[in-house]
Structure prediction request, 202 residues.
Amino acid sequence: MKIICIGRNYSDHAKEMNAEIPSEPLFFLKPDTALFKEKNFYYPDFTNELNYEVELIIKIAKVGKHIEVKHAANYYNEIGLGIDFTARDIQKKCKEKGLPWEKAKAFDHSAVVSNSFIPKEKLDLNALPFSLNLNDQIVQEGNSKDMLFSFDELIAHVSKYMTLKTGDLIFTGTPKGVGKVVIGDRLQGRINGQELFSISIK
Ligand code: MG
Prediction:
């Protein structure tokens, strides 16, 4: 399986990063070794600026290529929640030099994924609220209605370039409020108020 991550899909996050609002979805990959579904996350030794980015996740349910927007809803049944962990200090250096940023984004355990996913019939996909708590304080609040590109548009765009396979995950971008974690922190993610993951930084 592969993990596809969408960048800058919320204009308020693009602004906080001093980045341009994209005219088409931009995406990058994390390998399957990035997948993390445990409770205790060990802070990697190569960064001093590990950032959380909470994101809604689409789980692909059917193989598809060149999927049209109008058919995209047939390719997923469930939505989950996760964190696109980012070594921001390394990412900044890579960006400055115009280098690929896999070291900053694709390292082991950098893709936190909730153990449970919610059937899409139970959700209003056009207005889906989600949030991240850091030590019981809300630090990020997002809503799918604020995405620059919808779930269906993301699937159509990505599948122009690469075949989507059953079990692939698409991280759909983070809203504003990204920030640092330190050892001892606890992160809890919720969709519609329902807790989907809780991890401790060790
Ligand atoms: Mg992200």
Notes: The longest strand covers residues 76-84. Residues 3-201 form a domain with the Fumarylacetoacetate hydrolase; domain 2 fold (CATH 3.90.850.10).
